[in-house]
Design goal:
single chain, mainly alpha, 0% strand
Length: 442
């Protein structure tokens, strides 16, 4: 009976993983279509500006997510929804208002510095995007905390499909042929996704809790601060490469590097899909040994599948990328080859990190990110001048190798598992194939 129950739980988790993977795959396809239209109708410089705006939004979101980020997945099963709703909305409003004040002061005393960080003319739009995505992301993360992975996936599909069609509308109907077409499409996708998400989370506002709001804030801040500081450090790793490339060659090269990163990171959706379901599952577990065993299996699945996808991406000839994205983007393939090992390491890293967070040990993610930053800074300055964008890709691979090495050392110490557990065996492959057949009833 216990074995049957365990098998059913495994099958359910695999269904959620494949459902999430299918969603992320569809997102990657839509992203590819968006990239094609962006490179052909907006150009490399406009695409570079759009990439910087999106990166700025991601960076500023870290301040909001100190209280209302992925930590909500951990707290949703433990706190009343109404309490989390109040805290998250008030916090998002205060943080965005603080950003607006800082930007206003910078516009008065150091406008050039502000324009260096956020492209000129996009300051207000960045603030709006940060706020709308914050409340949209609240819906997504709390649904994961409720283990409603399928609903989360549907909302995400609505977001990125709306985003893709909106960009086509702005390009061909509104005849907008600069970065605004991409930025407006982001806003449209976030707004539509948020409105649809409200219909799914509204029922939980009836939940009443007796917990103290201030005590809850303290717990969320402790948990969220560690996660978001580590996210901030990781974002700095990425932001530095953009800044250095931009300082040497300008926005056009940033556009090419951004496009190469977008394509090469598409297999990242495998590790992300696995990690999202893993985090949702582990956050609702009390057995750390079981959590560790689930994690090691998922690490092997994520790295193996990601490596296979990266192999396919790397063997595609340069002429194909030049044909798809115009000759300006021909250097993409060399950049993607340099990024490939890093993407594989990143897949393992995401699974390890969600194990740490799901077992209430998020500090190890922060320590790993700091190690990565310590590797990133010298490697970027050593590799970008002689190798350009390829050097930036090499830096990413070296950085994630060092982070995953640290992740494994800590995981082994916590779980007591040995290095043999990392080896992919025939039994592992057979079990995955068997479980996949059972999920899809092949």
């Amino acid at each position: 009976m216990a074995r049957i129950c365990a098998t059913n739980k495994t099958k359910t988790m695999l269904k959620k993983i494949f459902g999430t993977f299918g969603t992320r795959l569809l997102n990657a396809i839509c992203g590819f279509i968006t990239l094609w239209f962006g490179t052909h109708y907006l150009g490399d410089e406009a695409w570079g500006v759009g990439g910087v705006v999106l990166l700025d939004v991601s960076l500023l979101l870290i301040g909001v997510e100190f209280l209302s980020g992925s930590g909500l997945i951990f707290f949703t099963p433990r706190k009343s929804f109404r309490t989390l709703f109040k805290i998250s909305y008030i916090w998002a409003t205060l943080v965005v208002a603080f950003y607006a004040l800082i930007m206003y002061i910078c516009s008065l005393i150091a406008p050039k510095v502000l324009d260096e960080f956020i492209p000129e003319g996009y300051h207000c739009m960045v603030l709006i995007l940060v706020f709308i995505y914050s409340i949209h992301n609240f819906n997504l993360t709390t649904l994961l905390g409720k283990e409603r992975v399928g609903t989360n996936n549907i909302l995400f599909i609505i977001q990125f499909m709306t985003q893709m069609f909106a960009m086509l509308f702005f390009i061909f109907v509104m005849n907008i042929r600069d970065a605004h077409a991409f930025v407006y499409s982001l806003l449209t996708g976030y707004v539509v996704g948020y409105i649809c998400g409200l219909t799914q989370i509204w029922q939980y506002l009836k939940e009443k809790g007796s917990e103290s709001i201030w005590q809850t804030i303290k717990e969320m801040l402790r948990f969220g601060t560690i996660i978001q500081v580590s996210t901030l450090v990781s974002m700095l790793n990425r932001r530095l490469s953009y800044l250095i490339i931009r300082s040497f060659w300008g926005d056009a090269h940033v556009g090419v590097y951004s496009a190469a990163t977008q394509v090469s990171e598409s297999p990242k959706l495998i590790g992300l899909s696995i990690a999202m379901v893993q985090f949702s599952k582990i956050s609702n577990l009390t057995d750390n040994d079981l959590a560790a065993k689930i994690t090691i299996k998922l690490v092997k699945m994520a790295t193996l599948l990601t490596a296979l996808c990266m192999l396919v991406i790397c063997i595609i000839p340069t002429s194909v990328y030049s044909w798809l994205f115009t000759s300006n983007f021909a250097p993409m393939r060399a950049v993607m080859i340099s990024l490939a090992p890093g993407i594989v390491f990143m897949a393992a890293h995401m699974v390890f990190v969600h194990y740490f967070s799901g077992t209430n040990k998020p500090q190890y993610d922060l320590y790993g990110a700091l190690i990565g930053l310590a590797v990133t800074i010298p490697s970027l300055y050593l590799l970008i001048p002689p190798f350009g964008m390829v050097g930036a890709g090499m830096s990413v691979s070296i950085t994630y190798f060092s982070i995953v090495l640290y992740n494994w050392i800590i995981f082994r110490r916590l779980s007591k598992l040995t290095a043999k557990e990392l080896l992919v065996t025939k039994d592992d492959v057979k079990n995955i194939i068997t479980q996949v057949k059972e999920v899809f009833k092949i």
